[in-house]
Amino acid sequence: MHIRKARPADQEFCLKLDHSVLTDHAWRMEEHEHQGTITLTFQPVRLPRAVPVPYPRQGEKLAAGWEECDLFLVAEERGIIGYTTVRSAKGHGLAWVYDLVVDPAHRRRGVGRALMAEVVSWASSQGLNELLVEVSTRNHPAVCFCRALGLSFRGYHDRHWRTQDIALLFGAHLR
User: Fold this and answer.
1) Contact 5, 37 (CB under 8 A)
2) What predicted TM-score, i.e. pTM, was given to this entire model?
3) Which of the listed residues 64, 107, 109, 158 has the most CB atoms within 10 Å of its CB?
Protein backbone atom coordinates (compact mmCIF):
# COMPACT_ATOMS: atom_id res chain seq x y z
CA MET A 1 0.00 0.00 0.00
CA HIS A 2 1.18 3.51 -0.84
CA ILE A 3 -0.06 6.80 0.68
CA ARG A 4 0.28 9.96 -1.40
CA LYS A 5 -1.26 13.40 -1.89
CA ALA A 6 -4.38 13.27 -4.03
CA ARG A 7 -4.41 14.60 -7.57
CA PRO A 8 -7.50 16.14 -9.23
CA ALA A 9 -8.09 12.94 -11.25
CA ASP A 10 -8.33 10.95 -7.98
CA GLN A 11 -11.55 12.64 -6.93
CA GLU A 12 -13.66 10.57 -9.31
CA PHE A 13 -12.27 7.34 -7.83
CA CYS A 14 -12.73 8.58 -4.26
CA LEU A 15 -16.39 9.37 -4.95
CA LYS A 16 -16.90 5.81 -6.24
CA LEU A 17 -15.71 4.21 -2.98
CA ASP A 18 -18.41 2.75 -0.76
CA HIS A 19 -18.51 5.31 2.06
CA SER A 20 -21.23 3.53 4.05
CA VAL A 21 -20.66 1.33 7.07
CA LEU A 22 -22.59 -1.57 8.55
CA THR A 23 -23.13 -1.29 12.29
CA ASP A 24 -24.95 -3.15 15.04
CA HIS A 25 -24.50 -0.33 17.59
CA ALA A 26 -25.24 3.39 17.77
CA TRP A 27 -24.28 5.94 20.40
CA ARG A 28 -27.10 7.48 22.41
CA MET A 29 -26.77 10.85 24.08
CA GLU A 30 -28.64 11.59 27.29
CA GLU A 31 -28.69 14.96 28.99
CA HIS A 32 -29.61 15.41 32.64
CA GLU A 33 -29.86 18.61 34.63
CA HIS A 34 -29.95 18.57 38.41
CA GLN A 35 -29.38 21.51 40.75
CA GLY A 36 -27.64 23.58 38.10
CA THR A 37 -25.37 20.78 36.93
CA ILE A 38 -25.72 19.48 33.38
CA THR A 39 -24.51 15.96 32.78
CA LEU A 40 -24.15 14.47 29.32
CA THR A 41 -23.77 10.76 28.77
CA PHE A 42 -22.87 8.96 25.55
CA GLN A 43 -23.24 5.23 25.56
CA PRO A 44 -23.32 2.53 22.90
CA VAL A 45 -26.68 0.87 22.36
CA ARG A 46 -26.98 -2.48 20.63
CA LEU A 47 -29.35 -2.39 17.67
CA PRO A 48 -31.74 -5.29 16.99
CA ARG A 49 -29.91 -6.00 13.73
CA ALA A 50 -27.00 -4.64 11.73
CA VAL A 51 -28.00 -1.63 9.67
CA PRO A 52 -26.19 0.25 6.90
CA VAL A 53 -25.25 3.80 7.78
CA PRO A 54 -24.78 6.18 4.85
CA TYR A 55 -21.88 8.62 4.90
CA PRO A 56 -23.04 12.03 6.19
CA ARG A 57 -21.63 13.92 3.17
CA GLN A 58 -22.33 12.70 -0.36
CA GLY A 59 -21.94 13.58 -4.01
CA GLU A 60 -21.30 17.17 -4.99
CA LYS A 61 -21.31 18.44 -1.40
CA LEU A 62 -18.64 15.90 -0.48
CA ALA A 63 -16.47 16.80 -3.48
CA ALA A 64 -16.99 20.55 -2.95
CA GLY A 65 -15.64 20.20 0.58
CA TRP A 66 -12.41 18.72 -0.75
CA GLU A 67 -11.55 22.05 -2.40
CA GLU A 68 -11.34 23.66 1.06
CA CYS A 69 -8.98 21.04 2.48
CA ASP A 70 -5.36 21.69 3.34
CA LEU A 71 -4.47 18.02 2.98
CA PHE A 72 -6.06 15.34 0.79
CA LEU A 73 -4.36 11.95 0.88
CA VAL A 74 -5.19 8.71 -0.93
CA ALA A 75 -4.17 5.15 -0.17
CA GLU A 76 -3.38 3.06 -3.23
CA GLU A 77 -3.04 -0.64 -3.78
CA ARG A 78 -3.84 -1.51 -7.38
CA GLY A 79 -6.17 1.49 -7.33
CA ILE A 80 -7.46 3.87 -4.67
CA ILE A 81 -8.63 1.99 -1.58
CA GLY A 82 -9.08 4.89 0.83
CA TYR A 83 -8.60 8.59 1.45
CA THR A 84 -8.62 11.28 4.09
CA THR A 85 -9.16 15.03 4.03
CA VAL A 86 -7.91 17.47 6.64
CA ARG A 87 -8.40 21.16 7.29
CA SER A 88 -6.11 23.18 9.48
CA ALA A 89 -6.97 26.00 11.81
CA LYS A 90 -3.44 27.32 12.26
CA GLY A 91 -4.53 30.04 14.68
CA HIS A 92 -5.75 27.29 16.99
CA GLY A 93 -2.95 24.84 16.15
CA LEU A 94 -5.60 22.36 15.00
CA ALA A 95 -5.69 19.68 12.29
CA TRP A 96 -9.32 18.63 11.74
CA VAL A 97 -9.95 15.33 9.95
CA TYR A 98 -13.16 15.75 7.95
CA ASP A 99 -13.13 12.54 5.94
CA LEU A 100 -11.53 9.16 6.51
CA VAL A 101 -12.87 6.55 4.12
CA VAL A 102 -11.59 3.04 3.42
CA ASP A 103 -13.12 0.72 0.86
CA PRO A 104 -15.03 -2.06 2.69
CA ALA A 105 -12.87 -4.82 1.16
CA HIS A 106 -9.77 -3.19 2.71
CA ARG A 107 -11.10 -2.26 6.15
CA ARG A 108 -9.42 -3.65 9.26
CA ARG A 109 -6.14 -4.08 7.35
CA GLY A 110 -4.25 -1.00 8.53
CA VAL A 111 -5.28 1.41 5.77
CA GLY A 112 -7.01 3.84 8.14
CA ARG A 113 -4.09 3.68 10.57
CA ALA A 114 -1.62 4.39 7.77
CA LEU A 115 -3.66 7.38 6.58
CA MET A 116 -3.92 8.73 10.13
CA ALA A 117 -0.17 8.30 10.68
CA GLU A 118 0.45 10.47 7.60
CA VAL A 119 -2.03 13.05 8.90
CA VAL A 120 -0.20 13.23 12.24
CA SER A 121 3.15 13.56 10.48
CA TRP A 122 1.83 16.33 8.23
CA ALA A 123 0.16 18.18 11.12
CA SER A 124 3.36 18.10 13.14
CA SER A 125 5.38 19.40 10.16
CA GLN A 126 2.88 22.28 9.89
CA GLY A 127 3.41 23.22 13.54
CA LEU A 128 -0.08 22.07 14.53
CA ASN A 129 -0.39 20.59 17.99
CA GLU A 130 -3.94 19.22 18.15
CA LEU A 131 -5.72 16.60 16.09
CA LEU A 132 -9.51 16.41 15.91
CA VAL A 133 -11.65 13.77 14.18
CA GLU A 134 -15.41 14.05 13.69
CA VAL A 135 -17.52 10.87 13.78
CA SER A 136 -21.27 10.28 13.56
CA THR A 137 -22.94 8.73 16.61
CA ARG A 138 -24.34 6.15 14.19
CA ASN A 139 -20.87 5.08 13.01
CA HIS A 140 -19.87 2.73 15.82
CA PRO A 141 -16.92 1.21 13.89
CA ALA A 142 -15.42 4.70 13.47
CA VAL A 143 -15.86 5.45 17.19
CA CYS A 144 -14.07 2.19 18.00
CA PHE A 145 -11.32 3.07 15.50
CA CYS A 146 -10.74 6.48 17.10
CA ARG A 147 -10.58 4.95 20.55
CA ALA A 148 -8.19 2.22 19.32
CA LEU A 149 -5.91 5.00 18.02
CA GLY A 150 -5.83 6.42 21.53
CA LEU A 151 -7.90 9.48 20.68
CA SER A 152 -9.92 10.85 23.57
CA PHE A 153 -13.45 12.23 23.56
CA ARG A 154 -13.28 16.00 23.10
CA GLY A 155 -16.92 16.97 22.73
CA TYR A 156 -19.83 16.86 20.36
CA HIS A 157 -21.77 19.00 17.93
CA ASP A 158 -25.52 18.54 17.66
CA ARG A 159 -27.10 18.40 14.18
CA HIS A 160 -23.67 18.60 12.59
CA TRP A 161 -24.41 17.27 9.09
CA ARG A 162 -27.33 17.58 6.68
CA THR A 163 -28.51 14.28 8.21
CA GLN A 164 -28.91 16.13 11.52
CA ASP A 165 -26.69 13.51 13.19
CA ILE A 166 -24.64 14.34 16.25
CA ALA A 167 -20.90 14.52 15.59
CA LEU A 168 -18.69 13.07 18.29
CA LEU A 169 -15.29 14.74 18.38
CA PHE A 170 -12.19 12.73 19.25
CA GLY A 171 -8.74 14.18 19.49
CA ALA A 172 -5.18 14.08 20.68
CA HIS A 173 -2.43 16.47 21.60
CA LEU A 174 0.41 16.03 19.08
CA ARG A 175 3.33 17.57 20.99
Assistant:
1) no
2) 0.91
3) 107
